Amino acid sequence: DTGVSQNPRHKITKRGQNVTFRCDPISEHNRLYWYRQTLGQGPEFLTYFQNEAQLEKSRLLSDRFSAERPKGSFSTLEIQRTEQGDSAMYLCASTAFGSTEAFFGQGTRLTVV
Amino acid sequence: RKEVEQDPGPFNVPEGATVAFNCTYSNSASQSFFWYRQDCRKEPKLLMSVYSSGNEDGRFTAQLNRASQYISLLIRDSKLSDSATYLCVVMMEYGNKLVFGAGTILRVKS
User: Fold this and answer.
1) Counting one residue from A and one from B, how many pairs have CB atoms under 8 Å apart?
2) DSSP β-ladder status, A5-7 and A19-24
3) How far off is chain B from A16, nearest CA to CA, in Å?
4) Could you list the pLDDT tens digit for every one of the 110 residues in chain B?
5) What's the burial of A74, exposed, middle or buried (CB within 10 Å: 0-12/13-18/19+)?
6) Do the Cβ atoms of B91 and A50 come within 8 Å?
């Protein structure tokens, strides 16, 4: 499978726990995006990387959220001290250099109980 | 005001109908425009890009009016398989983030 891969697909965690999600973009795609989507809403931008550099981070993202892309390939999104309001689908997307088409992974559905 | 606003929907139409979706964006510096399709519990996928000259792909026609900051999508001869959420998407500048509207649900019924 050469598409965008996200793991895990589902995560249930207790409030206050930390969680980490992984995204493997399409090989050689230099831009990688993280989005969050709740029911009835479109994807909401969280952050994006060009290679290993994090170029923009949404103001909506609290200090509990951090993302990395250490070698410019896969990326991780960590949420510390999860809250019930963090329950959502977390989507990762990547684009190739020179392209505007974003390819999305199937997402990680987080449920905070 | 939201950066990208769409018709609330849902649109319930019979097979064979023509349906139009509208979208407005607030930032005049927006550079690129798209329609994405999202099936239930699936990831969004690019349907088509939108250009000022308009573009057509089979039964789908997209239009952009930069002066009015307005984007449209027309679907002719609707099929059951067109049932999905249609997301209007704007990119501020090349390589920058994609800003999504809330989406419009289309239900095509036989």
Assistant:
1) 47
2) antiparallel
3) 27
4) 789 999 878 999 999 999 999 999 998 888 899 999 999 989 999 999 998 888 999 999 999 999 999 999 999 999 999 999 999 999 977 667 899 999 999 999 99
5) middle
6) no
